[in-house]
Amino acid sequence: MSFTITLIPGDGIGPEVTDAAREVLQAAGVDLTWEVHGAGAAVAEETGNPCPEALVKSIQRNRVALKGPVGTPIGKGFRSVNVTLRRALDLYACVRPVRSLVGVPSRYENVDLVVVRENTEGLYSGLEHMVVPGVAESLKIVTERACQRISEFAYRHARTNHRKRVTIVHKANIMKLTDGLFLDVARRVAQKFPELETTEAIVDACSMQLVRDPSRYDVLVMDNLYGDILSDLTAGLVGGLGVVPGANIGDRCAVFEAVHGSAPDLAGKNLANPTAVVLSSALMLHYMGERDAARRVERAVERVYAETDARTGDLGGNLTTTEFTRRIIALL
Ligand code: NAI
């Protein structure tokens, strides 16, 4: 099959790492046409808008996008591109598969879990105000609809990917109404998936257990704030944001992206590690149904770390982005 995909190279190292992913996907033999659209700080400087309408329309048309990191221009009046895309495309599920890569130095060797984060509400609803000088209030919005669809997403994801267990992460012992609603709805959804084991964890205890023994977790589902924090914590268990892929998925569209930033210190130097965006592009292939090509890309990345000494500077090596990408392609 042939596909048209929206590509957002982004700022800083974005163009370098997304070029690397394009080369790897081409070498994997997937027939892709790219519709390239700018977004981020550089585009905002030129046009006054970091997330042009034409980009949103392109993703709505193509339904799949690969995105490099983007900077949010400093100063008031700009909403981040990530938030704009999540809202405009209703990308309600943020998915972070976190797996140990043999050969990447990290604290654990046996991590294989998925963090599923609700992406649209909770404490990130943007409803904050000063009540009186010296007292600020932020509203945590939790709706049954959002709890339902993120729970169903997590359970369906677990089933499709042959996972065994889903852990519902919450703080319902303290936030009895908001997190209580999340927990109730997730429990109800769990009943529709009897083949999957369900466990529950309070977010603080879950954080401690993740650091002590991450192998006990499989798929974890949680609200926006807990998901933001735990997805970075779990990335830290396997070597950091440079090697972890990410996706923002809705019912109609999906945007796949590396979760690291635009690394202005490395921009234009051909030194960035393209692993995260290459693995994100493999997630994209899974989503598109190109599972064989997706597995071959993942396998090539696993082998480059496990079987060779090819490394970029962030992991103690001296290869350029281009050289490291060629080593992945050689193993495809
Ligand atoms: P950052 O992730 O860009 O950099 C943190 C450190 O990690 C730096 O030392 C950088 O050199 C290194 N690093 C990051 N990615 C790397 C890679 N692929 N290979 C090798 N080293 C890598 O985070 P920072 O400095 O907080 O943010 C810089 C800019 O990126 C900001 O404008 C921020 O808004 C944006 N950002 C965008 C994100 C996105 O689009 N998803 C996520 C996080 C930050």
In words, what does this structure look like?
By secondary structure, the protein is of the alpha/beta class. The chain has two domains: 1-99 and 239-332, Isopropylmalate Dehydrogenase (3-Layer(aba) Sandwich), CATH 3.40.718; 107-237, Isopropylmalate Dehydrogenase. It is built from eleven helices and twelve strands. The chain has a ten-stranded mixed sheet, with helices on both faces. The protein has a two-stranded antiparallel ribbon with strand order 6-7. α6 (178-190) links the parallel β8 and β9 (197-202). α1 packs parallel to α11 and α10 (291-307) crosses α11 (321-331). The radius of gyration is 20 Å and the shape is globular. The chain starts with a strand and ends with a helix. The model has no long low-confidence stretch (mean pLDDT 95). Residues 13, 17, 69-72, 82, 241-242, 257, 259-266, 272-273, 276, 314 line the site of 1,4-dihydronicotinamide adenine dinucleotide.
Main sheet strand line-up: 2-1-3-12-11-4-5-10-8-9
Mean pLDDT: 95
Fourth CATH level, the homologous superfamily of the largest domain: Isopropylmalate Dehydrogenase
Could you say which structural class the secondary elements and strand pairing correspond to? alpha/beta
SSE topology string: EHEHHEHEEEEHEHEHEHEEHHH
Record keyword descriptors for this entry.
single chain; 332 residues; alpha/beta; Isopropylmalate Dehydrogenase; 2 domains; 10-stranded mixed sheet; two-stranded antiparallel sheet; 41% helix; 20% strand; globular; binds 1,4-dihydronicotinamide adenine dinucleotide
